[in-house]
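Researcher: Predict the fold of Glutathione hydrolase proenzyme.
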Amino acid sequence: MKNLFYFACLSLLFGLNSCKSITQSSPESIYPLNKSIQAKNAAVVTAHYVASEVGKSILEKGGNAVDAAIAVQFALDVCFPVAGNIGGGGFMIYRENGGAVYTLDYREKAPLAATADMYLDENGDADLNKSQLGHLAVGVPGSVDGMVQAYKRFSKLKDWKTLVQPSVDIAKKGFKLTASQAAYLNETKPKFEKANTRPNQFSDSKRFKTGELLVQKDLARVYEAIRDNGREGFYGGWVADSIVAEMKRGNGIITLEDLEKYQAKWREPVAGYYDDYKVYSMAPPSSGGVLLIQMLEMLEDYDLKDMGFHSTESIHLITEVERRAFADRAKHLGDTDFYPVPLKEMMDSLYARKRMIDFDPKQASLSSQIGAGELKESEQTTHFCIVDNEGNAVSITTTLNGGYGSKVIVGGTGIFLNNEMDDFSAKPGTPNMFGLIGAEANKIEPEKRMLSSMTPTIIEKNGELVMVLGTPGGSTIITSVLQVALNYMEFGMDANEAVQASRFHHQWLPNVITSEKSAISPEVLKELNSMGHEVVIRGKIGRMEAIIKMQDGSLDAAADTRGDDHASGY
Ligand code: GLY
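Model: C-alpha cells for Glutathione hydrolase proenzyme follow.
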C-alpha cells in the first residue's frame, strides 16, 4: 500500500507513461520498471527509475535531448550514487537531427601535483590500494563543467534552474533504495569507514534496507549552489573549499587551482562504416570508440550472420578480433593531448585486414602471456540514452570508476569522489582494476586525462539515426557495445532482444574468454576448448541501454534486465 502511494506521488511528479511498454518488475520491486517501450515521440533509458522519469519530464516540458541529459546526469548522482556523479566525469555524444555529431569530453584530469611514479612503493611496484581507495585516487572532476558546456552550446530550454531543480528535490525529499542499492551500500560500508575523514551517512548508518528513503541534505545544498551559480557552484565557493579541505585532511593532492583550471573539451568523434551503417563514438581519451571502429573493420570481411548468433565460428571470430584490438589498446592508446596516438592508422581498413592475416578459423591465437587481472562486476559506471521529439540523440557514459569511486565523500557535501587515477597505467605491464595493462601512452602526467573504455555510441544508416547505445562494465564496455551493435546490424534483433542477449568478452590479457553462462552452449564450449580457448563463466556483463529509431519514426527503447534500469518515454 505504501508503495502504491509512493508510485502515485512519483506519477503526479513526473506524469504517467503513455507509451506501450513491457513492465518487468518482481513483486518486491521498489519501482515499476519498463524494460522495453515503444514511444511515439521521445525516449529516455537510464540505470534508475527516478532518473529516467526526470529525463522524461524535461522532454515533456519542451527540453531537447541535451536538456534532458543534463537533468539526468545530475539526477543519477543523487539516486544512483554508485556511478552517477558530479565527483567524476564522462563522455557525451550528441547527434542533431540534421546529422551533425558532437562529442564532449568531461573526463577527469590528473591533478597538477600528479607524477608518473605516484603509486609506486619503495620497491618500484604499483600499490593499487593507493590508486583505487582514498584521496590520492581522485582525479579532478569534470561532470559539472561538462554539463555547463553542453547547456551553453545546445540547450533549447535555456533554463538551467529547471534542469538542476529535480536533483535538489530528490536529494531533499529522498528516494527509495532498491534491493541491489541497499545491498551494495551495506557491502561497501567498511571501505567508506576506511576512506573517510568526516562523519557521513554512508559510513555511519546502520544497515540500509530495501525501500528505505535515502535523504541527502548536504547534497541538496550542493545542488542549490550549482542551480544558482552554475560552474562556480562547484568549482568555486564553499563547495570547492570543502573539496580542497577534504583533500588536505586525507593527504590528497587536488587544489583550488586544479578545480579552477578544469575545462571539459569538445572533440571530433571517431567514425567508421560497417556495411550500410555509419558508427560514431568517442575519441581518446576513451579507447572505446577507436577499438569499436577497429573491430568492426576487422569483422567486415566475414559473414557473421551466416555463421550464426553465438555459434562456435562467430564467438571464435569475435574473440580473435577483440584480442587484437585490446593488444593495440595496451600499447598505443592514451590522451591525444599528451601522446601521438596513431588514430587514423588504427581505424584504417587495410590495417584491420593486416591484423587479421594470422587469424585461423580453427585455432585460438596465443596472447603473448597470461596476466593476473581479475574482472569485476559491472556497476561501476553508468550509461544513458535519450532521443527527443525532434530526433536529436544523446548517448552518455559517465563514471566514478569503481563503485562509489574512491569511497571518499567530501565532508559536509555528500559528494562522492572518483578513483579515476587507477585508469592510468601506474606502471607499464601492471594490470589496473579491470585487468587492463598500459604503457607510455597512458602514463600519469599532470593535467592529462586517463585512458577510458567508455563507449557511448550512435549509429546511422543512409544519413538517418537508427541506434543509440552504451553500457557500463570497465573493459567489457567496448566488447558489449560491439556485440549489441552487431545484434542489431547483423542479426536483425530489436532493441530488447539486442540488449538482453547474453554476452562474452576477451581483452587479450588475461588470455581467456569470460562469458555469461547462457552465451555459450555446452557443445560450443567443447568446440571452443578444442580450438585452444579457455572459457571462464562469470556473472552479468554490463547494463546496456539502447534506443532504436524505427522506420516510422517511433522509438524502440530497451533497459537492461541485468539491473534496475528503466525505459521511459511518451
Ligand atoms: N573508469 C572506467 C573507464 O573509464 O573505462
